[in-house]
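Can anyone check this?
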Amino acid sequence: MENESRDARSLAGRRVLITGITDAASLAAWAARGARQAGAELVCTGLGLTPHHQGLSDRAEAHMSSAFESFQQTVAEELGAETPTFACDLSLDGSVRDLAASLAEREMVLDGVLHAVAFDRTLRPGGKTSLLETSREDFLGCMDVSAYSLVALLRELIAAGVLADGAGVVALSYLGASRVVSHPYKNVGVAKAALERIAGELAAELGPAKGVRVNVVRFSPYSASRAGGAIPGLVEAEKRAADASPLGVAHPQALADEVVHLLRPGSAITGEIRHVDGGQNLLA
């Protein structure tokens, strides 16, 4: 019982930055709840208007303001009104730099980071699902937010002195990073492949320099969140995985448990791609 109690508070006294919460059902929200239950102090960042957004239309500004208000409401309801929230656009270096500076001003040193952001303009009803027909702008935009943002975020956190030595970093991915899957995922699948490769490189760089561990978790197809529900064909892919995978589709709590495990101090796990998908990765 004593060991169980200790494990249940395995992140006590540690501060974790959570990105990517869009609604209560989002995988980032599940991971955040798991980290909080394990004793972590949370800091959350979501897409919102910043001084670095210039020339936006009134409609775009209204959309971003609404999205940030929804994010803040979700954080307050799911994680507590006292949880700090920051607006940040991970595709803008200045915005990421401001986030790191704000954390430094508040002396909020991070012991963990969850990267759970992705963006693909082609994944919408009626959007182009052919990689050959994907525009340069859509490809690079997806790569920027879904993959390069991990580099930008960690660089600025380290430069500001707010990423602790020995911190744990976890990025969320999907089997579509290495397989051609049945539903539209082509553009973001390429970006997730890049994200996984980036995570390995960062694990090799930051381990010797700072003892920082960087890992990736691939989860089952998941349509319950706002982001997942917007992916054409994902509901059908989830049903197929539920029928075919040895353990069916994984529950989001299993993802949360794995994220907490990878964020725990003292782990020697780094540069890994972990599958929390009921064994779907075993299938041909």
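Reply from J.R.: I decoded it. The chain has a mean pLDDT of 93.
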